[in-house]
Amino acid sequence: MIDNHIIATIIVHLFIAIVQLMFWRKSTAQRFLSVGGSLLVLILAFKLFFKVYEGGILTMNAANWKAPFGIVFVADLFSSTLVLLTSIAGLAVSIFSCVGVGRQRILYGYFPIFHFLMMGLNGAFLTGDIFNLYVWFEVIIISSFVLMTLGGRKSQLEGAVKYMAMNILASTFFLTGIGILYGISGSLNMADLALRIPKIQNQALVEITATFFLIGFGIKSAIFPLYFWLPSSYHTPPSAVAATFGGLLTKVGIYALFRVFSLLFIPNHFTKELLIALAILTILTGAFGALIKTNIRRLFSYLIVCHIGFMIGGLGLYSKWALLGAIFYLIHDIMVKTNLFLIAGVVRQLRGTMDMNKLGGLYAQYPKISLLFALVLFSLVGIPPLSGFWPKIYLFRDAFQLEKYAFAGALIIGSFITLFVIAKMWAQVFWKDTPDPEIVEDKFADMIGYKKTMLILPVVILASASLYIGLNAEAIIHVADQIATQLLDTSPYINAVLGGQK
Predict the structure, then answer these.
(1) Cα–Cα distance between 76 and 52 in angstroms, integer?
(2) For the segment 304-351, what is each residue's pLDDT rounded down to a tens digit?
(3) Most buried residue, 38, 261, 266, 392, by most Cβ within 10 Å?
């Protein structure tokens, strides 16, 4: 079904960014515009999600050029769910940024760039054209590079150089893959490619092309051994920026992997084994990396890497229940990881540092805030019945049924290490005695009520979303089940895009 409202979430972010450029020197106006615009995008994202959920896949042909010749946007349940999750996370970060980002950064264009980044994310999720996926990735990379370097501190520039270098490498592999793919198939439309690729005689060249995509998206989603840029760069920008990166940027790489390796390159035995091996190594290196970190944001960065392995493993197993588990984990992970970096920002306001060795006494001084943080940490660990618990059941189930015991072992090790490092963090940050009051820099206590609310409210919003995911797991499983079914049977997607042109 054709629906031109698919791109509303993209257009609104673009419009907000342009209007904010007109208020370049007025930080208060930019704050109001950002929160109001993000709220509007969230309403549109809910509308899009329920339209797709109830009515099926929607498409939009740019300038009425029909696929496969024109640019097409496609909203299936997978993409519309990710647009919705991105919008929830975007609203939370937007509210947090009103206080969590300094006025100078705002005057250098923080909010317009943030909305360009959100526009790029929604564009990447909704495009039905492989080259335009690359274009949206470039929008994301340029926006995120500017956000990472705003402020110009040495550590920021160092992290941004690593981030940019690896993303340029990823884009090179991605663009090379697109070039070969176009050369051998003559199309860039993903639905059309899904029909043409099986008919290509030189399947060895197709597999080489798939490897280019795997490397390109593997760098972006931070899988082993291409993840090292992530822990080196995510601890440097402000917490609002780190929350956007930690919650959303790696997930667009995961989305691209799931989309390409279910629609274009159906995994064969070798690809499945390779994905599972990469998942195991990603889980283990991420988990053991987190063990030795004392900076909260570095610890969370390694946990991002560890849990990326859970999702890649689900793709490697490539069964309905494993894909369901991986999609469920993706939904849970976006909410929790965004929230963890916001929490790290609040901890910095409470104590002036994120070094666990210098922290302590938060539960005694701020018991209500600590319990709120505990809910998020328990969700991350997967304490039943919270959101991190349910998807692991499905991943374990198929790991054992398909006799992938090494992956099951990595899941167990990754889960236990996550539990251990979070317990250690809780003991050091919340239960340990309060550090010497002379070295504590508590900016939060002196804030006016409005500013305190703007810092805590986003954490409450995302924690509520995590709680909903955990306590209403049946509804999330139903959505993830439908997404997994659509990933395994792509004919509805192809029919919606190409209609009678097959």
Answers:
(1) 6
(2) 999 999 999 999 999 999 999 999 999 999 999 999 999 999 999 988
(3) 38
